[in-house]
Amino acid sequence: MSRDMVQDNVESRIQALAPWFHNMELDGIKTAPEHFLGDYPTFKWNGFRHLVPLDMRGRRVLDIGCNAGFYSLEMKRRGADLVVGIDSDPRYLAQARLAADIAGLTIEFEQLSVYDVGQLGQKFDFVIFMGVLYHLRHPLLALDLIYEHVAESDLLFQSMLRGKRQVSPVQANYEFEDTAPFEDDGFPRMTFIEHNYAADPTNWWVPNRAGMEAMLRSAGFRIEAATEDEVYLCCRGHRPVMADAPPRIAAVSSPDP
Fold first, then answer.
1. Homologous superfamily assigned to 10-236
2. What CA–CA distance (Å, rounded) separates 210 from 238?
3. By Cβ atoms counted within 10 A, which residue in 94, 233, 234, 249 is the most buried?
4. What is the pTM (predicted TM-score) of this model?
5. What angle do CA 225, 69, 191 make, to 5 degrees?
6. Taking the domains of the chain in order of start, what are their residue ranges?
7. Beta partners for residue 206, in sequence order
8. Cα distance between residue 169 and residue 221, in whole Å
């Protein structure tokens, strides 16, 4: 088969799975050249790639909400022994499998939500949880489940943040009559979106920076490094004494028609 025929075959396979939310270059072909965010997620990756070890050999990586597999592919290119990508959307997984196939990389992809991570039955040295939290109805539960079931060491995390960037010191206790912290723009908070934000009905909760950092700590993750915008590199630490373990969530079979 000629190079032109191979190129045409790759391009047709890519087009068959359009539209792509990740603008990736596969065998010289851009999957989403007109992406509304531009060269996404490459420009995002370039802003925090220094947080990820260049040599991932010996590491087991879990990419939660992997979408079309951009970060999964990058981890495998850095030599990770095992990379597992999960997503609840089968179309994204089809794109991810195609991307891995064209790149010649061995990556496992499974259709699971973050609430299902206990079903994987194993721990990972490096967990990626990027761009998912604000799409969840139960964000703190998701962090608790990651801590409980899959995060053995590092967590690479990102969430959309809104509100003031300042982070005020948090006391161990506040008196009931003290309402001043709730007027402080640097106090941890989450904003609930009842309807739509950015025309997306899955945008449910948006934290400020203080709120995001507080949630990570509350789930048991110690923040080791962060970018100036929204990305955190965390390490598994200790959960607060009053933080209960998350409930067991079992897959429920659909009723027979």
1. Vaccinia Virus protein VP39 (3.40.50.150)
2. 19
3. 234
4. 0.91
5. 55
6. 10-236
7. 191
8. 18
